[in-house]
Amino acid sequence: MRARDLAAPYPTVHADAPAVDAARILTEAGRPALVVVDDHDHPTAILPASQVLRFVIPRYIQDDPALARVVDEEFADHMCDSLAGKTVAELLPREGPKLVVVEPDDNVIEIAALMAGNRSPLVAVVDGKGSKAPMMGAITVASLLSGLLPERITDPG
C-alpha cells in the first residue's frame, strides 16, 4: 500500500487565519491536528489540537492540574476567549511534532516509521518536489492503522 492509496482530503488553514476558526475546524471535523499551508497550498506546519488546549489553559493550571478543581464554571466558559484576535501562527508550537511530508509512492512502512519517529498524528502527502507543490491529502495514524490491521474475524459460533 502506498501513500496515494491512503491519502484523503484533509482540513487545512493558513498561518494568518483566526485561531478561533482553526479551533472550530478541529472540533467540527474531529481531527487530531490541522495542516497549515502557504498561499500555494503547500504544507508548512502542523497545529495539533493539544497545542490549542495548551494555549487556552492558563500556564499555572498546566503546571499544577490540582488547581483546576477550584476553577468555577464561568472561568471554564470563557477559557477560549484567549483565542480572540490571535492567529494560527501564534498558536504554532515552538517544539513538538513537526510536519512530516511524504510522496505518493512512499510505502506504508516508510510512512509509519516517519509518524512514529516524529510523534506525528498525521503526514501530508505532496505530489512533487519543492516548496510549491500543493498537498494531495493527508494520512492520519487512525487511517494508517486501519490499513495495516488484519480484517476482523467473526466467530461463527
Automatic annotation (TrEMBL):
Keywords: CBS domain. It comes from the Bacteria. InterPro entries: CBS_dom (IPR000644), CBS_dom_sf (IPR046342). SUPFAM superfamilies: CBS-domain pair (SSF54631). Residues 1-65 form the CBS domain. It holds the Pfam family CBS. This is CBS domain-containing protein. It comes from Nocardioides bizhenqiangii. The lineage of its organism: Bacteria, Bacillati, Actinomycetota, Actinomycetes, Propionibacteriales.
